[in-house]
Design brief:
Elements (H helix, E strand, L loop, with lengths): L11 E7 L5 E7 L6 E7 L6 E3 L5 E2 L3 H11 L7 H18 L3 E3 H15 L1 H11 L5 H17 L1
Parallel strand pairs: 4-6
Antiparallel strand pairs: 1-2, 2-3, 4-5
């Protein structure tokens, strides 16, 4: 594994452990050249379904794009990276479990909303405001009421 800091070709694994969902192996690595540490994740590479966008176009599933959109919603929120990784892994597992070649992006969006609701209510509202394209304060208020109603049911 190449060091992301100095580009040295050979790094050492300092610690390995299974992630929360046991769907990945988390490895702490150390570069012998610059002495910096970084984390890598090793996952099984299974074929993910293609995504069908609202306009009918098809795109390959992109884990980094999914993670990026969730990270934006979680920006400056007290959620651990491992909790986010576990949520992403659950979404990937659900997509694979569908056993379909193509899945609408709206289904993925709904999965993201469910996971964000578990992780952080503010992140859920942030994501919902973009995903549902809120145009009025009333739509925003309705989303907040949904979160409050879910909280009362628990």
């Amino acid at each position: 594994m190449r060091c992301p800091f100095c580009g040295h070709e050979d790094t050492q694994v300092v610690d390995s452990r299974s992630s929360t969902e046991a769907s990945a192996i988390r490895r702490r690595r150390k570069c012998p050249s610059c002495d910096k540490r970084f984390t890598t994740y090793e996952r099984i590479d299974l074929k993910m379904p293609r995504l069908v966008k609202k306009d009918g176009s098809r795109v390959e599933f992109d884990r980094e794009k999914l993670a990026g959109s969730m990270k934006i919603a979680l920006r400056k929120r007290p959620v651990e990276t491992e909790a986010l990784e576990a949520a992403i892994a659950r979404i990937e597992d659900r997509l694979r479990a569908l056993g379909e070649r193509e899945v609408p992006t709206t289904k993925v969006g709904d999965m993201v909303m469910r996971e964000l609701a578990k992780l952080d209510k503010i992140a859920y509202i942030r994501f919902a405001s973009v995903y549902r394209s809120f145009e009025t304060p009333e739509e925003f208020r309705e989303a907040v009421q949904e979160v409050k109603a879910k909280k009362r049911r628990k």
